[in-house]
Amino acid sequence: MKPAVSVVVPAYNASRTMERCVESLLGLSGNSPAHEIIIVDNGSDDETPEILRRYPGIVMVEEKAVRGPSAARNAGVRAASGDIIAFTDADCVVTPDWLVHGVSPLADTAVCGVAGIIKGVEPKNEIQEWMNSRNILDAKAALANSFRPYVQTANAFFRREDFWKVEGFDTVLLCGEDCDLSWRILEATKGRLELAPEAVVYHDHRCSVRGLFRQSSKNASASAHLAAKWGDALPPKYWKVSVWECLDLMRSGLHYAGASLPGKPGRERMEAKLDFLHRLGRKKGMISSAWQTGQYGRW
Known about the structure:
Blueprint: E1 5-11, H1 18-26, E2 35-41, H2 48-53, E3 59-62, H3 69-78, E4 84-88, E5 92-94, H4 98-103, E6 111-120, H5 126-133, H6 139-143, E7 155-159, H7 160-165, H8 177-189, E8 192-203, H9 209-230, H10 239-259, H11 266-293
Parallel strand pairs: 1-2, 1-4, 2-3, 6-8
Antiparallel strand pairs: 4-7, 5-8, 6-7
């Protein structure tokens, strides 16, 4: 029987989380629509391919020619048979009725994309606990984006027809590809994006200081890369906003310095440190991507 839904998961050196992800997908409830599970190995050099071969219930696709999650996801959709594509990531665990709730809004033909909720897994340390508390991947915030709403690919649903109508993910974009795809589908279909609050996945956030800093930097760099592609369609970033961000970074740094004084609680010091590094990473991402793309106003 032809699957109604194709679940596509890009994977690169995902051996730490791959097994939990696959088992959660294989454990989807019996109420779920007919579906197939497609995992795209993007040229991993760890144990990811060996782990995937243990599961005959999945379709394993290889995309070695072009690195990056966009290319991997496009390869997965090319191999897909379902009319609806459900995206999640290799560091995510889906809930049993994820597909039931994620697919449901697409029964309305005016809905062109669906965003599910992304929560953090049970924290392994203070860093993941901090990221969970800040709701780093807030689907509601993405749908309330000041330019246009978008869905995050850790938990997203689109029709396959609409996906190819805009030629899939832009593999040139280094980040912000989920924004770009959502915006192009909105333009092409004149539809709307919908939130599915009961379609929940749990994301295994970065658990090191370095990982937090790099993720914050990458996320913030999306603005300049998107501006380079969308040009004047994207509202400008006013210099007052950049100045305020710098002042906020300084304030956060002073708070961290104060929390590091002798006698201060260790938890307060750690939270102040992570707040500061998150802001520092974001500002670093803004400045470096503005320089790389020539979008100097995006610093």
